[in-house]
Amino acid sequence: MTHKTSVIQRITATKITAGAVAVLASITLSALAGNDNRAPEVPAEIAVDSSTNKVQVQALGIGFQVYTWDGSTWTGPVPDATLFDSEGNFVASHFAGPSWQSSSGSKVVGAVTGKITVDETAIPWVRLVPLSRQGPGVFADVTFIQRINTVGGKAPATNGTVVGQIAKSPYTANYIFYRAAND
């Protein structure tokens, strides 16, 4: 197999995967309809105390986990995703940090405090706490963030061919942002 054929096969596989993620995303977006603001049932490793916190925002993230080949392993990932509400409206951009920048102008940067692998074929479910919050808006009072119901996003199963090679792995996930219950 030539290098050109291998590249074409990878591009085709990425397009097929991205198409499948888009279909799954539309199904997940439909599942979010109804604006249910109850905290989801999740494993204890990523649970948030609902007696002191309540759901502020639920959103569907659609995008990529971006990995970089360092010569011996895939490093990262760095998220590159867009979050939507149950009606398909833009909520936030999700990028390195991990960070979320809302359409209302607020920004939150988080740190993982809990993680569990629920599906071996997908990135883990996580709980994060804010390291910093900036600006007024929907993320101004965030106390916790959860990433759940993940589909895809894993690092490539094969080694990279060149140091610095980038691999974008399509994924979807539900993001739940909490605030203090007394707010």
What does this structure look like?
- It contains 1 helix and 8 strands, in the order αββββββββ.
- By secondary structure, it is an alpha+beta fold.
- It has one domain.
- It has an 8-stranded antiparallel β-barrel.
- Mean pLDDT is 85; it is low at 1-35.
Question: What secondary-structure arrangement, pairings included, does this model have?
Answer:
Elements: H1 3-32, E1 53-69, E2 74-84, E3 90-95, E4 99-102, E5 107-116, E6 125-134, E7 142-152, E8 166-180
Antiparallel strand pairs: 1-2, 1-8, 2-3, 3-4, 4-5, 5-6, 6-7, 7-8
Q: What is the string of SSEs from the N terminus onward?
A: HEEEEEEEE
| Largest pleated sheet | 8 strands, antiparallel, barrel
Q: Low-confidence segments, ≥5 residues, pLDDT <50?
A: 1-35
Helix content: 10-25%
Q: How many angstroms separate the termini?
A: 61 Å
Structural class: alpha+beta
Report strand order across the widest sheet: 1-2-3-4-5-6-7-8
Number of strands: 8
Our count of helices gives 1
Q: How many domain regions?
A: 1
How much of the sequence lies in strands comes to over 45%
- Dominant shape: globular
Rounded radius of gyration (Å) = 17 Å
Q: Roughly what is the average pLDDT, rounded to an integer?
A: 85
